[in-house]
Amino acid sequence: MARMSRRVFTLSALSVLAATGGGAAACGAAAPRSGTAARAAAGRPAPEAGRASRAPAEMRGVWLATVTNRDWPSRPGLTAAAQRGELTAHLDKAVRDRLNTVILQVRPTADALWPSPYEPWSECLTGRQGRNPGWDPLGTAVREAHARGLELHAWFNPYRIALHADPTRLTASHPARRHPDWVVPYDGRLHYNPGLPEVRAFVQRAMLDAVARYPVDAVHFDDYFYPYPVAGQTFDDADAYDRHGGAFGSRAAWRRDNIDRLVREMAAGIERVRPGTRFGISPFGVWRNAATDPRGSDTQAGVQTYDDLHADTRKWVRENWIDYVVPQLYWHIGYADADYAELAAWWAETARGTRTHLYLGEALYKAGAAEEPSAWQDPVELSRHLTLAAAHPQVRGHVFFAGKEVAADPIGAMARVVADHYERSAKPPR
């Protein structure tokens, strides 16, 4: 969570973050919540954390990334029939592996995999941004997933505009070209400025259009809020800070508040547009290192979401702002800088006593990859993750990155997970 350090998650970004020890908020009164939290607020009890609630229900998910045609479609420009065929093949493979949820990336770069009145058709479909593919991928995905007993979670990236820095390459009608003041170039990419209230309102309208049109089971964000930091570069939001940051003691605090507002307003919008639809986020796996904050994990990660992405993921869980969280724990058991075992325990403790469901993001893409250490050459590594996580009652399941690896399973790591842990089908938690 696409998750990841999701999140998408491009493999190049994941590799850079891994090399640095990484992996791939204060708004006043509580906003209305979607899904589980809304039901609890209405006086209906949320399921208690613990083995009794885990037994009949377990998240078994897969991310299906569309950015750069990572997982689907296999390449741009396929016929509508070929794209449908590839999509249903992914859904069928999920059913065969006794998974129960597909998290489909439907807004990878400020574009759309449905006929949006706000943003252009995604170039991953036809190779040309704005070109109608001749069918409705998101509508079809929801219908075909539900026909197979799968949940379909719509995965959106809120602020990424493009994986390049040239606005003229965007289709002429793109909102970023109509509002160049909304755009911040950074790290060779284009980003919407999270510090502008008009940007935050716009991206919510664009995303909620899909929720209004289709009975998606959940809305899903990945790990990209403010962009991952790049040495020697500055994300230029000084003008927005001068206009809107006066109430904050630092730009970092203001930025965290901007992301907090996005999360809370989106939760309220989902509940307003389609009540009962859940809202989940898949952050980078380290909130803060304990050396930075005693509440943090015993890790030495090069990226900390609170400080670097300005995403206070711990608070979102502790204060029940979201229905589920899927931290991207894309490291092996025993990894010195970010041990999977340490982080699984830290997130379990963070979720303890909350209504936020905890699922763990799993780096299936690393299994058998030549550049990965020996732990990832063992097809049993991921199965060990699930065995270890079962000792924490707060862990209600796992999501695998990503669809291409579920389909190919080069060293049999997914097959081992299925054989060891997914002998019978399971419904996703509600």
TrEMBL record:
Start and end residues of each Glycosyl hydrolase-like domain: 58-370
This protein's UniProt keywords: Signal
Taxonomic superkingdom: Bacteria
Gene3D superfamilies the UniProt entry points to: Glycosidases
SUPFAM superfamilies according to UniProt: (Trans)glycosidases
Cleaved signal peptide residues: 1-25
InterPro entries for this protein: Divisome_Glycosyl_Hydrolase, GH, GHL10, TAT_signal
Name of the featured protein: Glycosyl hydrolase-like 10 domain-containing protein
Organism of derivation: Streptomyces lucensis JCM 4490
